[in-house]
DNA sequence: TATTTGCGTAACTCAGAAGTTACATATACA
DNA sequence: TGTATATGTAACTTCTGAGTTACGCAAATA
């Protein structure tokens, strides 16, 4: 099971990984308790977790032989920054429209 | 060139498509003028455009034999809604922390 | 100490996204 | 009307992400 190096966008492109993040938003979970929520094998889940961890979406705390996964901000921030760029685009587009409308009013 | 049906997250998972959205944030462009910015063939760009269009990230205006692509809000809003959910998670996590700290103060 | 449990990794298969070339079509232009 | 331009689509190939099974190891437990 080769470990692909994916950017934050590719990471959340997978529906299973998004579901994992959703589950972790309710509770910190171990690999096995996470796997209970999926049809795929545990090693498959394990791989997704590694991808989420590498991309900064979760942190992992080892307690004995168990690994507790918890959401981490870093990964999300990269996505927010990207969306914020386009937010600015819509805002400036709206401003341009306002300017046009205001200039037309005197006519 | 089969047209895969991708959700908004998978759509922005591709670096080329993200670059296209960036280019379109500066100006509306035709398929060919977009293709000038990439190493891939024009049909490949054409396919990406179709995917972006289907997912609601761009609108297309036909002018003669040219097709002008413009950013469209719809696709972005799906992503924002998803991120907003996790924003709420961080906010509530912070609130819980505050509560804990406040409860400890009287001790 | 022997066994069970929780997890990681290696090796492999498979499906599909992403690219290509070749061709068809419609519009603009000489 | 003939040609060049802008684009879409079909058929095909390639690559890799996502899944599997088999195995190994460390920690818990009997």
From TrEMBL, chains A, B:
Ranges of residues in domain HTH arsR-type: 1-91
GO molecular function, one term: DNA binding
PROSITE patterns linked: HTH_ARSR_2
Pfam families: HTH_5
SMART domains, alphabetized: HTH_ARSR
UniProt xrefs under InterPro entries: ArsR-like_HTH, HTH_ArsR_DNA-bd_dom, WH-like_DNA-bd_sf, WH_DNA-bd_sf
Keywords: DNA-binding
Coiled coil ranges: none
PANTHER family noted in UniProt: SLL0088 PROTEIN, TRANSCRIPTIONAL REGULATORY PROTEIN
UniProt cross-references to NCBIfam families, sorted A to Z: HTH_metalloreg
Protein name per its UniProtKB record: DNA-binding transcriptional ArsR family regulator
Lineage: Bacteria, Pseudomonadati, Bacteroidota, Sphingobacteriia, Sphingobacteriales
């Amino acid at each position: 099971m080769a470990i692909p190096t994916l950017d934050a966008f590719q990471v959340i492109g997978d529906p299973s990984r998004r579901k994992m993040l959703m589950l972790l938003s309710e509770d910190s979970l171990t690999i096995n308790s996470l796997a209970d929520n999926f049809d795929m094998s545990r090693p498959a889940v394990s791989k997704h977790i590694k991808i989420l961890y590498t991309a900064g979406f979760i942190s992992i705390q080892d307690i004995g032989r168990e690994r507790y996964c918890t959401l981490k901000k870093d990964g999300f921030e990269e996505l927010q920054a990207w969306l914020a760029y386009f937010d600015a685009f819509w805002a400036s587009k709206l401003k341009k429209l306002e300017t046009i409308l205001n200039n037309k009013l005197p006519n």
